[in-house]
Amino acid sequence: MYTEPSTYDIVGVGFGPSNLALAIALDEILLERGRELSHCFIERQPRFTWHGDMLLPGTDMQISFLKDLVSLRDPTSPYSFVNYLRQHNRLEAFISQKTFFPSRIEFNDYLRWTAGHFDTHCRYGESVTRVVPEYKGRDVVALQVHSADAAGRERTRRTRSLVFAPGGRPFVPACLAEKNDDRIIHSSRYLSEIERRPLDAAGEHRLAVVGGGQSAAEIFLDLVSRYPNAKVDLILRGSTLKPSEDGPSINHIFDPDYTDFFFGQSQQVRQSLLAEFRHTNYAVVDGDLIERISAMLYAQRVDGSERVRVLSSCAIEQVDCDTQSLTLSLAQAGAGLRQERYDRVIAATGYLRDTSRSLLAELEHELEGFTIGRHYQLATPAHVQAPIFVQGSSETTHGLADTLLSVLAIRSHEIALSLVDKLAAKPPRPARADNAVMEEVE
Hints:
Elements: E1 10-13, H1 17-33, E2 39-43, H2 81-87, H3 91-96, H4 104-115, E3 122-124, E4 126-136, E5 139-149, E6 154-159, E7 162-164, E8 169-170, H5 174-177, E9 184-186, H6 190-196, E10 206-210, H7 214-226, E11 231-235, H8 256-263, H9 267-277, H10 287-303, E12 308-311, E13 314-321, E14 326-332, E15 336-342, E16 344-347, E17 351-352, H11 355-359, E18 388-390, H12 395-398, H13 408-423, H14 435-441
Helix pairs in contact: 1-13
């Protein structure tokens, strides 16, 4: 029977792609150096799933499969997407598709397959609730990580270091969130809620999607397909759906090497760069989806119907709820105030990246303004002996790629090297044969 250590060397909060990539990097480095560090990852979901409620039919990745968990660092790794295809006897078939962009469903399966090799290191079904510093005199010698499972059972793990990668926190505009109505759904819960409280597929429903980004467009098209008799509105603050820019002349900002350049700039220059390139990642939509939506709107003009609408330049002024429907009061530029009634409203309104900071509230007095260094370690005074790293919360210091998959392979290796250098003071263990990892994978 497995017994957890009294003190872990490393505890990771969250086990999405970021900490999964870290698990791989740790495995590689510890094997190479013949050392061992006890580590585990605490994940609130009952099993590995990457954006499970947005795994919609027909949705593809927006980055190349070569930006997987490892290939930018080591394309020969057994955890590459190419090896995943080989192990599932689909390599030739994938090549025949002539694409760099697998479906989101397939990429999730790749991530889940990889995560399965690290099950012994992951504690699924637990949510981290707080992190408490442990003092010896004035020194912080360890951290106590508190978590609870779905049944409310609590436990505490002691660790010498911490890596936060909890992902984003769903953001819902106040005018919608304050109603606390389960007919208002954030995109992060889209499929689950559609299945939990299904609508009659043949019903003449009124549905709205709020947002102007990729998720909003995908959900809009899914609703149109899922409910063929429904009227579906896409409500935008902007004047139009904006296409994402993803040509080679601009994609360099997502390369890992760009992180060094961005980090080395002044705060003022960083802010300017973020504003300049914001359209590559936020409130933009793939061109093929815009074309599909435009084609639907034009077809309606031909046949004189108005089943789907794009309501642009709209701000939600008020939300009223009754037992029958939700009423949105929309202020539309050039058209004044209008009221629209809906059976469901989907808020595809993005995420906040402040989860790490809120969980570290009891340690905040020991943190130096939540400043994150080049290699993703939080700045702390010398008496804080337990290093803390953060993944996915450093856009303002490390660039737009920080919340994306593009830098995972390199970032995870940088963090793993830092952790091993700081913590691996234990005597070396005998190195395994090189084929041991391959046997585990295959």
